[in-house]
Please model this.
Amino acid sequence: MSLLFRFRAIAEAGSVRKASEVLNVTQPALSRSLAQLEDHYGGKLLERHARGVRPTPFGARLLTTIARLSRDWELAEAELAGNDPGAEGRLRIHAGPLWSSVVLPSVIAKLHKRFPNLTVEMAPSTASATQELIDGNIDVTFGGLYQAERENPTLEFHAFSKICDRLVARADHPIQRLGTNDYEAVHDYPWIIYSADPIYEAETLHAVMERTGRLPQIRVRSSSLLAIFRLLQDGDYLCILPDAAALSIPGRPILTVPIEIGRRNSATGAVYRKAISHYPPLQGLMQLCGEYFEAMGE
Model:
């Protein structure tokens, strides 16, 4: 492991000299460590270029494995420390809109009562979240559960509820007074796309085209749910979002629209690597999420 971590330091620094300064290890010692690894794997891990060194294709693959091993090592040490609430720890989370705006803020507040020194790093879900999970760059993702994730033997998933995407607008929006089949009315107003999750753009375009044969007037694309909610509250915009997320926003109410457009229903929950399933803060997080949806009657 020490040889692998030394190789990672060289790759990140871009030269043996800079890595030796970071690690406080002599350059000859680092060069010997690199030679040992290259002899073990039977090939070059670094190649020279004008400004120093960079990983070979195999070296880049090895760096991905090292990142995962490093995180597993860190979590294994935390697990050996037991459930000591005073222990330091870290959870890196990617979350979809329903989870990041509604579920996790409540759940994480309770989690910190058990683990007050736990650091939670939360970011919006991206298209590369599954690979980031496999590589060990994040610990758990919350959102829709897809078949590819379920079939990966290194991942474990936990379904908690259903995603119910609906067309939403402010409570006093003129469109709220229409009937379920007034599809053409959706072209009378500007649309917002939640761009942090690519599925919402695809869903919006498909849903409107399917019902009307025309694309909606998309006037705003935003990765910020807060910005989207403010726009929905203050303007005549339409947007497809999880109904539970929209209904929970304080201030001027945002409600589902009677027109039946955007009615995706799919399982939602958590995905994480099996290797970290025994990490106490992760176990606590899963338990609290289960209690949250049980209280909601899901």
